[in-house]
Amino acid sequence: MTETVLFTGAAVLDTAAGALVPGQRVLVRDGEIAAVGADVDAPDARTVDLGGKTLMPGLIDCHVHVNAHTADLAGLGDHSPAYVAVTAAIELRAMLHRGFTTVRDPGGADFGLHDALAEGLIDGPRLHFGGKALSQTGGHVDMRPRGRTVRDDHRCCPDLGLVCDGVDGVRKAAREQLRTGAHHVKIMLSGGVASPTDRIDSTQFSLAEIRAIVEEAEAANRYVAGHAYTARAVNRGLAAGVRSIEHGNLIDESSVELFLEHGAFLVPTLVTYRRMALEGAEYGLSAGNLAKNELVLDAGLEALRLANDAGVAICYGSDLLGGMRRHQLQEFTIRGAVIPAADVLRSATVTAARLLGEEGRLGQVVPGAAADLLVVDGDPLADLAVLTDPETHLKLVMQGGKVKAGSLE
């Protein structure tokens, strides 16, 4: 049961405008925001005076891997699915307690975790899942070492991807993910850091294969998210209809033009390269993986600045693996070093909601939206660091009108 609550004395973060509006009252009823304004009243509601604290929408992380309790992705597929599910449940609860009331997992999470969260069996963010990411043979989720031929693509194997080749093969693979209720299909458009045999600067899948996957997603009223680093790989995906580009550290002006032309989204994940450089070996990355990490580590900030200055729709992503996931909130301050705080906050709220098809329901404190709310002691527009220390500054996490962390006292 949700409680009817009237928050008074709130400084409401208007994420669309990038402004803090003091002296507001926000009424929560039946799991939704019923009214917002200076004169809202509700005699039947429990009144909670925030004393000027910031009331803001719950955060949205558009790139997490809840199954990746280790950075050794090549070994993940050999772990027990039951064990991985338990560790995922623990991590999902931790994400919620950091203030993330919604996450998108573009590789690994499945309908089982989604249903467990939706039914309240475990605590965690709302989950938009993609099932297994699709990769060509030798691509970013083909985790076989060079000498191994056999690969287990069983549905319950807890690794993050599925290897498929040829137009017919990728169509079937996309349909299999969509059959499970996936909110999007994730594909590998280039090489990556954590895989053993591909180059960062490679392109993956033929244009015909990419277009076939996009066609299948669009037929199901879903979209394609594409992992890519270089401008060449990004541009191929955008031209073929990929809706969101994950990472994009090595984009250029030609990529920016295509983002704007197609109304596509960029999901940078800068914190993961910082943490992999510092902790990757501890959590299972090989020397070869760490060498590839150096190729994209510093370029991401310039790519972020370039895209933001041009008006590309940018979403928040972290992409952390294993024990490094505890640094999920550090993406705020990394981005804040090169772009305005208001833009960083939009990336984790209103813009992210647009990518997820949840505009008006998530990412804003407006009537009709889900009551996914945070109470923060401090002004994140003035100092993004208040979001990175939840033990000190995060006083309340509400999801769907239910208190998940902190209290109404």
UniProtKB/TrEMBL annotation:
InterPro entries: Amidohydro-rel, Metal-dep_hydrolase_composite, Metal_Hydrolase, Metallo-dep_Hydrolase, OTAase-like. It comes from the Bacteria. The keyword Hydrolase applies. One of its GO terms (molecular function) is hydrolase activity, acting on carbon-nitrogen (but not peptide) bonds. Keywords: Hydrolase. The keyword Metal-binding does not apply. Residues 54-400 form the Amidohydrolase-related domain. PANTHER family: ALPHA-D-RIBOSE 1-METHYLPHOSPHONATE 5-TRIPHOSPHATE DIPHOSPHATASE (PTHR43135). This is Amidohydrolase family protein. It comes from Glycomyces terrestris.
